[in-house]
UniProtKB/TrEMBL annotation:
One protein family per Pfam: B2-adapt-app_C
UniProt domain Beta-adaptin appendage C-terminal subdomain: residue ranges: 632-812
Name the UniProt record assigns to this protein: Beta-adaptin appendage C-terminal subdomain domain-containing protein
Superkingdom, natural source: Eukaryota
Example of a GO biological process term: intracellular protein transport
Subcellular location: Endomembrane system
Residue ranges of the region described as Disordered: 567-598
The keyword Repeat is annotated on this UniProt entry: no
Length: 819
């Protein structure tokens, strides 16, 4: 908004600019123009002085020219007719002996941005491309890009494009880079500048002559070029090797992006390049610029998706500094969670514990959430820290701890006993909506183990009229009904009062409808209510592996050195932004080749568990031979969440049970059971098993701790085979490895039948000795069998056999190494 008295100021400036005495004194005239520019920067409308300023551009003083051009470029759009008066002066300056004056005139001639002046600008720009001064050529090249941007629908002048292509070999590196930028703008609709082998090699050879941003521009454009041979590819990589470890982070990032683009078919070279950039990325994390540190952390997270151990030995570099801003601390904590392992877990948890009492509540809650994510693999140590934090009785800390415990017991049910003991008395320090909602969920699900659960709920019910949160009311309804199912005598009265209030007095329709639903559900009977509210749960003996599946580099290479890693900055696992675990739905990546659900159909049993191990070997041999005919590849993409896996697996299991285990064929679904002899696999560590399976693109989702019976492992993968009319291009395979440690009845029966035959034909003592040895050997063999259950959608027999062959080979290899 213009300042008060601006009209008087403009009048005074006009008198000064028109005063002959001021015009005759060069210094006073320049100072008067400077006052005009100062007033313009302060918000005063000085467009009325346009004609006076136009007269001032006819001068030999370069400083005065710059001031006048700043004014003219700002107000030219408001005075297009008067702007024509400036063109003659600018064209005259384009022929000035001083190259600085020529470049200044060209730059401001294009900055006027008036379509009516295009015909006057083209000739000076064409002459500028051939100017002997590099600074003039730089401005002329960019001037053509501005001119095209002013008239984007105009026909492209082939002569100008050819001239710009020829200037790519200009001795000045800035002119070369400006030509690339101008051609990118002019040829945007045609895909940008065309890069052939001579141009690509010329740009690579002159890369070191450019400044930092020039190198980044050249490297970005070179991503379009594809070498014609392997020798040429490795020659290019050799030229880029020094730039890969550049001390300038932008150059390093642009070079790595080019590396990943060129080596998309060479994963070993891409992994080697990621190893090379480890030191520059760590150096960027210690930069004095906060923005650079944050960007480096975001890109390190991107690299850890494919190389989880890349920064494992340097985890201390990601410890938070006291004076660092909250957004950098939170990003560092996310990286620390990715780097946790058996050797450093104690130190990382101790460091995170210190952040839990940070003065910034967001940082403290992020640290507690990070401890909870580590607790999925190291539950005992993390629960000890979380329980200790409850003793601080700080409102924001207690809220974050309760939310973290809720998320932890959802994925690790074996932690529920410790969580139930820790919850006693923590309701007094909960005031925020998310914390109370988490507490109510825990009271509803594990209320039979918490002695004070009915009394805590009664406090919430008594204050329901003053409750303002819709989410808390809905969670209170669910928790009270769940507690009623396990402790009816203590909860019946308060449940009746809550339902009466929500149905008769509550104004919110969501709460009222939920209360009516529960009311009608109770009329259907307790058992029906129990089926709805207390459905299937995860096996408490299973634990979810921390971290995400290792992704191929090609899955994120296109987003490296862009803003996408920065946009993915929110912590998706932050419990403060979500409700009850049952209400959190996974968002799997779309896959056109895979249906959203396993369709209801009968299960076909290809081979029973009583088949001998020799048949399993023949089965694997057949699979290998068939895979030689039809190539098979395994992939982890799209990723499958533990919740989605459990839903699909239990749905198939329930359908099979309802059908009474009948065996029927269906063309879109397949289930098979196999026995694999792996004596020591159940004693193998989950980390080793996961690493071995991931080498062949099989993802492990859940496992039973070693030396625990029954021992289970759940896994999945996607198969991709050569496309044909009779086979689907992609299938989803869900799998379970089961080891019970008990001999099978049919095997024992086989042994007894054999003993009878031997006793009738041979001597009693010799037969008994042989049978004892054979029986013990067979029982030992049967107890060492691991039952493999596979479920495939859609059906592809050859793909399933090939996958089973790969899985059997991995299990046998692990079993041999463990032995």
């Amino acid at each position: 908004m213009p300042y008060l008295g601006s009209e008087d100021m403009v009048k005074e400036l006009r008198r000064a600019l028109s005063n002959p005495n001021v015009q005759s004194d060069q210094l006073r005239y320049r100072n008067t123009i400077l006052k005009v520019i100062r007033a313009m920067s302060q918000g005063v409308d000085v467009s009325g002085l346009f004609s006076e300023i136009v007269k001032a551009c006819a001068t030999v003083d370069i400083v005065q020219k710059k001031l006048v051009y700043v004014f003219l470029c700002s107000y030219a759009a408001l005075n297009p007719e008067l702007s024509l008066l400036v063109i003659n002066t600018l064209r005259k300056d384009c022929q000035d002996p001083n190259p600085m004056v020529r470049s200044l005139a060209l730059r401001n001639m294009t900055n006027l941005r008036l379509s009516s002046l295009v015909e006057y600008v083209e000739q000076p720009l064409t002459a500028g491309l051939r100017d002997r001064a590099a600074c003039v050529r730089r401005v002329a090249v960019l001037g053509w890009a501005k001119l095209h941007n002013l008239q984007p629908n105009s026909e492209i002048d082939a002569t100008v494009v050819n001239e710009l292509y020829s200037l790519l070999r200009d001795p000045d590196p800035v002119v070369m880079v400006n030509c690339l930028r101008a051609l990118e703008e002019i040829l945007k609709e045609e895909g940008g500048v065309a890069i052939n082998k001579p141009i690509a090699h010329h740009l690579l050879n002159r890369l070191k002559e450019c400044d930092v941003w020039g190198q980044c521009e050249v490297l970005r454009i070179l991503e379009r070029y594809r070498p014609q041979s392997d020798d040429e590819l490795f020659d290019i990589l050799s030229l880029l090797d020094t730039s890969l470890v550049s001390q300038h982070p932008p150059v390093m990032a642009a070079t790595l992006s080019l590396f990943l683009s060129l080596c998309s078919a060479l994963p070993a070279v891409s992994l080697s390049a990621l190893e090379r950039v480890r030191a520059p990325l760590l150096a960027a994390c210690g930069s004095t610029s906060r923005e650079l540190r944050f960007t480096a952390l975001c890109h390190i997270q991107l690299l850890l998706r494919s190389v989880p151990g890349l920064m494992g030995a340097h985890y201390k570099r990601f410890f938070c500094g006291y004076a660092e801003p909250a957004y950098i601390k939170q990003r560092k904590m996310q990286v620390l969670v990715e780097l946790v392992n058996d050797e450093n877990v104690a130190m990382l948890l101790d460091e995170l514990k210190g952040y839990c009492t940070d003065v910034n509540t967001d940082t403290a809650q992020a640290a507690i959430s990070a401890i909870g994510r580590i607790g999925r693999s190291y539950s005992d140590q993390c629960l000890q820290i979380l329980t200790g934090l409850l003793g601080l009785k700080q409102e924001h800390i207690t809220s974050a701890v309760v939310q973290t415990m809720r998320d932890l017991v959802w994925v690790c049910p074996q932690c529920s006993d410790t969580v139930c003991l820790a919850l006693e008395g923590c309701e007094e320090n909960l005031q925020d909506t998310q914390g109370r909602q988490a507490l109510l969920w825990l009271l509803g699900v594990y209320g039979e183990r918490i002695s004070s659960a009915p009394y805590v709920l009664e406090v919430f019910i008594d204050g329901v009229r003053s409750e303002t949160s819709l989410e808390v009311k809905m969670e209170l309804l669910t928790a009270t009904l769940r507690l009623f199912l396990c402790r009816p005598a203590e909860t019946q009265d308060m449940l009746g009062r809550l339902l009466h209030y929500c149905i008769e007095e509550e104004t919110d329709m969501c709460v009222r409808d939920q209360a009516l639903l529960y009311y009608h559900l109770l009329h259907c009977g307790i058992e029906e209510t129990r089926k709805v509210l207390q459905g299937r749960r995860s096996d408490p003996s299973l634990g979810v592996l921390i971290g995400r599946p290792v992704e191929p580099i090609s899955q994120w290479a296109h987003s490296f050195n862009t803003l996408e890693p920065l946009r993915q900055g929110t912590v998706t696992t932050d419990s403060s932004n979500k409700g009850s675990p049952e209400h959190v739905t996974s968002d799997p990546k779309p896959n056109s080749d895979l249906s959203d659900d396993l369709k209801p159909c009968q299960i076909e049993t290809v081979q029973t568990a009583s088949d001998s191990a020799s048949l399993c070997t023949e089965y694997s041999t057949d699979a290998l031979s068939s895979s030689a005919v039809a190539p098979l590849s395994l992939s982890l993409s799209p990723a499958l969440s533990p919740e989605e896996f459990e839903r699909l697996w239990l749905q198939r299991q329930s359908l099979h049970a309802e059908q009474g285990g009948e065996e029927k064929e269906d063309g879109d679904y397949l289930c098979t059971e196999e026995c694999v002899q792996c004596p020591t696999i159940p004693h193998c560590s989950p980390q080793n098993l996961q690493a071995a399976l991931q080498l062949v693109n099989i993802q492990t989702l859940a496992f039973t701790p070693p030396h625990t019976l029954p021992w289970r492992v759940y896994l999945y993968t996607h198969t991709h085979s050569s496309c044909s009319a009779s086979k689907p291009p992609s299938t989803l395979i869900l799998g379970e490895l089961l080891y019970t440690g008990e001999p099978k009845e049919d095997c024992s029966k086989m042994v007894m039948e054999g003993s009878h035959e031997q006793l009738t034909t041979e001597g009693e003592e010799a037969a008994v000795d042989r049978l004892r040895g054979r029986e013990s050997a067979r029982q030992q063999s049967q107890t060492e069998d691991v039952k493999v259950t596979l479920k495939q959608q859609p059906r592809d027999d050859k793909a399933l056999k090939g996958f089973l062959s790969v899985l059997t080979t991995v299990l046998h290899t692990l079993s041999t190494e463990t032995t």
